[in-house]
Write a structure and sequence with these properties.
Largest sheet: 9 strands, parallel
Helix content: 40-55%
Oligomer: single chain
Order of helices and strands: HEHEHHEHHEHEEHEHEHEHH
Number of strands: 9
Protein backbone atom coordinates (compact mmCIF):
# COMPACT_ATOMS: atom_id res chain seq x y z
CA UNK A 1 0.00 0.00 0.00
CA UNK A 2 1.40 3.38 -0.96
CA UNK A 3 2.02 5.92 1.77
CA UNK A 4 -1.24 7.75 2.18
CA UNK A 5 -1.66 11.51 2.11
CA UNK A 6 -2.75 11.30 5.75
CA UNK A 7 0.42 9.47 6.83
CA UNK A 8 2.58 11.79 4.75
CA UNK A 9 0.99 14.92 6.21
CA UNK A 10 1.35 13.80 9.83
CA UNK A 11 4.96 12.74 9.17
CA UNK A 12 5.72 16.19 7.73
CA UNK A 13 4.10 17.92 10.71
CA UNK A 14 6.02 15.70 13.12
CA UNK A 15 9.21 16.91 11.44
CA UNK A 16 8.01 20.48 12.01
CA UNK A 17 7.18 19.70 15.67
CA UNK A 18 3.65 20.99 15.41
CA UNK A 19 0.09 19.77 15.47
CA UNK A 20 -2.28 19.77 12.51
CA UNK A 21 -5.22 22.07 12.04
CA UNK A 22 -8.18 20.13 10.65
CA UNK A 23 -11.05 22.12 9.16
CA UNK A 24 -14.51 20.57 8.87
CA UNK A 25 -16.90 21.95 6.28
CA UNK A 26 -20.24 20.65 5.03
CA UNK A 27 -20.23 19.77 1.34
CA UNK A 28 -22.77 21.88 -0.52
CA UNK A 29 -23.25 24.46 2.26
CA UNK A 30 -24.72 26.94 1.55
CA UNK A 31 -24.65 25.94 -2.14
CA UNK A 32 -22.39 23.97 -4.43
CA UNK A 33 -20.43 26.87 -5.93
CA UNK A 34 -19.68 28.52 -2.61
CA UNK A 35 -18.83 25.20 -0.97
CA UNK A 36 -16.30 24.50 -3.74
CA UNK A 37 -14.74 27.96 -3.33
CA UNK A 38 -14.37 27.37 0.41
CA UNK A 39 -12.94 23.90 -0.12
CA UNK A 40 -10.36 25.15 -2.61
CA UNK A 41 -9.37 28.00 -0.26
CA UNK A 42 -8.87 25.92 2.89
CA UNK A 43 -5.25 24.77 2.36
CA UNK A 44 -3.95 28.29 1.68
CA UNK A 45 -5.87 29.54 4.72
CA UNK A 46 -4.02 27.04 6.90
CA UNK A 47 -5.96 23.77 6.92
CA UNK A 48 -3.53 20.84 7.08
CA UNK A 49 -6.28 18.27 6.64
CA UNK A 50 -9.90 18.72 5.56
CA UNK A 51 -12.97 16.92 6.83
CA UNK A 52 -15.74 17.10 4.28
CA UNK A 53 -19.14 16.41 5.79
CA UNK A 54 -21.72 14.79 3.57
CA UNK A 55 -25.25 15.99 4.31
CA UNK A 56 -27.70 13.57 5.87
CA UNK A 57 -31.27 14.13 6.99
CA UNK A 58 -30.78 12.71 10.49
CA UNK A 59 -27.32 13.71 11.76
CA UNK A 60 -27.67 12.35 15.30
CA UNK A 61 -24.23 13.35 16.61
CA UNK A 62 -24.49 16.94 15.44
CA UNK A 63 -25.65 20.02 17.27
CA UNK A 64 -27.79 22.73 15.64
CA UNK A 65 -25.01 24.42 13.60
CA UNK A 66 -24.06 21.32 11.60
CA UNK A 67 -27.67 20.11 11.45
CA UNK A 68 -28.58 23.42 9.80
CA UNK A 69 -25.58 23.19 7.47
CA UNK A 70 -26.78 19.76 6.33
CA UNK A 71 -30.27 21.13 5.78
CA UNK A 72 -28.95 24.01 3.67
CA UNK A 73 -26.88 21.62 1.56
CA UNK A 74 -29.74 19.18 1.07
CA UNK A 75 -32.09 22.01 0.17
CA UNK A 76 -29.65 23.12 -2.52
CA UNK A 77 -29.64 19.59 -3.95
CA UNK A 78 -26.35 18.17 -2.67
CA UNK A 79 -26.08 14.37 -2.85
CA UNK A 80 -23.42 11.85 -1.90
CA UNK A 81 -22.45 11.63 -5.57
CA UNK A 82 -22.27 15.40 -5.61
CA UNK A 83 -19.88 15.36 -2.64
CA UNK A 84 -17.50 13.10 -4.55
CA UNK A 85 -17.74 15.43 -7.54
CA UNK A 86 -16.73 18.34 -5.29
CA UNK A 87 -13.80 16.31 -3.99
CA UNK A 88 -12.68 15.45 -7.52
CA UNK A 89 -12.75 19.13 -8.51
CA UNK A 90 -10.71 20.01 -5.42
CA UNK A 91 -8.16 17.34 -6.34
CA UNK A 92 -7.60 18.92 -9.76
CA UNK A 93 -5.76 21.73 -7.99
CA UNK A 94 -4.47 20.00 -4.84
CA UNK A 95 -2.91 16.54 -4.77
CA UNK A 96 -1.41 16.68 -1.26
CA UNK A 97 -3.98 17.86 1.30
CA UNK A 98 -5.67 14.88 2.98
CA UNK A 99 -9.42 14.81 2.41
CA UNK A 100 -11.58 12.88 4.87
CA UNK A 101 -15.30 12.40 4.39
CA UNK A 102 -17.43 12.41 7.54
CA UNK A 103 -21.03 11.36 7.84
CA UNK A 104 -23.47 8.55 8.41
CA UNK A 105 -23.88 4.95 7.34
CA UNK A 106 -27.26 4.91 5.62
CA UNK A 107 -26.21 6.64 2.36
CA UNK A 108 -23.26 4.24 2.03
CA UNK A 109 -25.48 1.20 2.53
CA UNK A 110 -27.76 2.54 -0.19
CA UNK A 111 -24.84 3.06 -2.59
CA UNK A 112 -23.08 -0.22 -1.71
CA UNK A 113 -19.79 -0.29 0.19
CA UNK A 114 -17.56 -1.59 -2.61
CA UNK A 115 -18.98 0.75 -5.25
CA UNK A 116 -18.81 3.72 -2.92
CA UNK A 117 -15.23 2.99 -1.86
CA UNK A 118 -14.06 2.76 -5.46
CA UNK A 119 -15.87 5.99 -6.38
CA UNK A 120 -14.42 7.75 -3.34
CA UNK A 121 -10.89 6.61 -4.17
CA UNK A 122 -11.31 7.83 -7.75
CA UNK A 123 -12.41 11.22 -6.39
CA UNK A 124 -9.30 11.50 -4.21
CA UNK A 125 -10.77 10.71 -0.80
CA UNK A 126 -8.19 9.55 1.76
CA UNK A 127 -10.24 8.66 4.81
CA UNK A 128 -13.75 8.07 6.06
CA UNK A 129 -15.36 8.76 9.42
CA UNK A 130 -18.76 7.14 9.89
CA UNK A 131 -20.29 8.32 13.13
CA UNK A 132 -22.97 5.65 13.51
CA UNK A 133 -21.09 2.51 12.42
CA UNK A 134 -20.26 0.36 15.47
CA UNK A 135 -16.85 -1.36 15.33
CA UNK A 136 -18.56 -4.74 15.68
CA UNK A 137 -20.40 -4.14 12.40
CA UNK A 138 -17.65 -2.35 10.49
CA UNK A 139 -15.88 -5.25 8.75
CA UNK A 140 -17.77 -5.12 5.44
CA UNK A 141 -17.14 -1.39 5.16
CA UNK A 142 -13.53 -1.76 6.31
CA UNK A 143 -12.94 -4.49 3.72
CA UNK A 144 -14.23 -2.24 0.94
CA UNK A 145 -12.14 0.71 2.12
CA UNK A 146 -8.99 -1.41 2.48
CA UNK A 147 -9.39 -2.55 -1.11
CA UNK A 148 -9.56 1.10 -2.18
CA UNK A 149 -6.65 2.30 0.05
CA UNK A 150 -8.96 4.52 2.10
CA UNK A 151 -8.46 4.81 5.87
CA UNK A 152 -11.33 4.01 8.20
CA UNK A 153 -10.96 6.54 11.01
CA UNK A 154 -12.68 5.65 14.27
CA UNK A 155 -14.03 7.81 17.05
CA UNK A 156 -13.02 7.38 20.69
CA UNK A 157 -14.86 9.26 23.44
CA UNK A 158 -14.53 10.08 27.14
CA UNK A 159 -16.59 6.94 27.85
CA UNK A 160 -14.26 4.63 25.87
CA UNK A 161 -12.62 2.63 28.66
CA UNK A 162 -9.59 0.34 28.48
CA UNK A 163 -11.75 -2.69 27.73
CA UNK A 164 -13.57 -0.96 24.87
CA UNK A 165 -10.58 0.83 23.34
CA UNK A 166 -9.02 -2.16 21.49
CA UNK A 167 -12.42 -2.86 19.91
CA UNK A 168 -12.66 0.74 18.73
CA UNK A 169 -9.11 0.78 17.41
CA UNK A 170 -9.32 -2.46 15.44
CA UNK A 171 -8.86 -1.75 11.71
CA UNK A 172 -8.40 1.97 12.37
CA UNK A 173 -5.79 3.74 10.26
CA UNK A 174 -4.67 7.27 9.44
CA UNK A 175 -5.47 8.75 12.83
CA UNK A 176 -7.87 8.35 15.72
CA UNK A 177 -10.52 11.03 16.27
CA UNK A 178 -11.01 11.74 19.97
CA UNK A 179 -14.36 13.31 20.79
CA UNK A 180 -13.33 15.58 23.64
CA UNK A 181 -16.74 16.07 25.25
CA UNK A 182 -19.85 14.00 25.76
CA UNK A 183 -22.84 15.18 23.76
CA UNK A 184 -23.29 16.63 20.30
CA UNK A 185 -21.04 18.89 18.25
CA UNK A 186 -20.85 22.55 19.19
CA UNK A 187 -22.46 22.14 22.60
CA UNK A 188 -19.54 22.26 25.05
CA UNK A 189 -15.96 23.48 25.16
CA UNK A 190 -12.99 21.14 25.09
CA UNK A 191 -10.54 21.40 27.98
CA UNK A 192 -6.95 20.67 27.01
CA UNK A 193 -5.85 19.42 30.40
CA UNK A 194 -8.89 17.17 30.67
CA UNK A 195 -8.17 15.52 27.31
CA UNK A 196 -4.39 15.19 27.76
CA UNK A 197 -4.47 11.78 29.55
CA UNK A 198 -6.97 10.34 27.07
CA UNK A 199 -4.88 11.47 24.10
CA UNK A 200 -1.77 9.86 25.59
CA UNK A 201 -3.66 6.62 26.30
CA UNK A 202 -5.12 6.40 22.78
CA UNK A 203 -1.83 7.29 21.14
CA UNK A 204 -0.03 4.57 23.11
CA UNK A 205 -2.70 1.97 22.34
CA UNK A 206 -2.98 2.74 18.64
CA UNK A 207 0.43 3.98 17.53
CA UNK A 208 -1.49 6.56 15.50
CA UNK A 209 -1.82 10.34 15.68
CA UNK A 210 -4.75 11.53 17.75
CA UNK A 211 -6.95 14.38 16.55
CA UNK A 212 -9.22 16.11 19.06
CA UNK A 213 -12.56 17.52 17.96
CA UNK A 214 -15.94 18.69 19.30
CA UNK A 215 -15.85 21.77 21.53
CA UNK A 216 -13.10 23.81 19.83
CA UNK A 217 -14.50 27.16 18.77
CA UNK A 218 -11.82 29.80 19.38
CA UNK A 219 -8.17 30.29 18.41
CA UNK A 220 -7.24 30.14 22.09
CA UNK A 221 -8.95 26.78 22.53
CA UNK A 222 -7.46 25.43 19.31
CA UNK A 223 -3.98 26.47 20.40
CA UNK A 224 -4.41 24.82 23.78
CA UNK A 225 -5.55 21.55 22.21
CA UNK A 226 -2.60 21.69 19.79
CA UNK A 227 -0.29 21.53 22.80
CA UNK A 228 -1.61 18.13 23.89
CA UNK A 229 -2.81 16.42 20.69
CA UNK A 230 -1.55 15.70 17.19
CA UNK A 231 -4.39 17.69 15.61
CA UNK A 232 -7.18 20.10 16.52
CA UNK A 233 -10.45 19.75 14.58
CA UNK A 234 -12.88 22.66 14.20
CA UNK A 235 -16.30 22.26 12.61
CA UNK A 236 -19.27 23.97 14.25
CA UNK A 237 -17.43 27.28 14.55
CA UNK A 238 -16.82 27.26 10.78
CA UNK A 239 -20.35 26.37 9.75
CA UNK A 240 -21.54 29.10 12.13
CA UNK A 241 -19.57 31.54 9.97
CA UNK A 242 -21.58 30.39 6.95
CA UNK A 243 -24.83 31.09 8.78
CA UNK A 244 -23.62 34.47 10.04
CA UNK A 245 -22.49 35.54 6.58
CA UNK A 246 -25.82 34.54 5.06
CA UNK A 247 -27.72 36.42 7.76
CA UNK A 248 -25.65 39.57 7.23
CA UNK A 249 -25.47 39.22 3.45
CA UNK A 250 -21.67 39.03 3.60
CA UNK A 251 -19.19 37.11 1.48
CA UNK A 252 -19.51 33.55 2.82
CA UNK A 253 -16.20 32.27 1.47
CA UNK A 254 -14.19 35.22 2.77
CA UNK A 255 -15.76 34.98 6.21
CA UNK A 256 -15.15 31.23 6.58
CA UNK A 257 -11.56 31.41 5.33
CA UNK A 258 -10.81 34.33 7.65
CA UNK A 259 -11.94 32.22 10.59
CA UNK A 260 -9.80 29.33 9.35
CA UNK A 261 -6.77 31.62 9.17
CA UNK A 262 -7.17 32.75 12.78
CA UNK A 263 -7.62 29.19 14.05
CA UNK A 264 -4.75 27.78 11.97
CA UNK A 265 -2.42 30.55 13.14
CA UNK A 266 -3.17 29.66 16.76
CA UNK A 267 -2.45 25.99 16.12
CA UNK A 268 0.77 26.74 14.29
CA UNK A 269 2.01 29.10 16.99
CA UNK A 270 1.22 26.73 19.87
CA UNK A 271 4.26 25.36 21.66
CA UNK A 272 5.59 22.06 20.41
CA UNK A 273 2.87 19.43 20.47
CA UNK A 274 3.63 15.93 21.72
CA UNK A 275 4.13 13.76 18.68
CA UNK A 276 3.19 10.18 17.95
CA UNK A 277 5.64 7.39 18.53
Amino acid sequence: MMKSRIDARFAALKAEDRAAFVAYVMAGDPNRATALDILKGLPAAGADLIELGFPFSDPMAEGPPIQKAAQRALKDGMTLKGVLELAAEFRQGDDTTPLIMMGYLNPLVTWGFEAFAQAAAAAGIDGLIIVDCPPEEADPLADALDAADISLIRLATPTTDDKRLPVVLRRTSGFVYYVSVTGVTGAKEADAEAVRPAVARIRAASGLPVAVGFGIRTPERAGAIAQVADAAVVGSALVDEVAEALERNEDVTARVLSKVQSLAKAVRSARTAPVSA
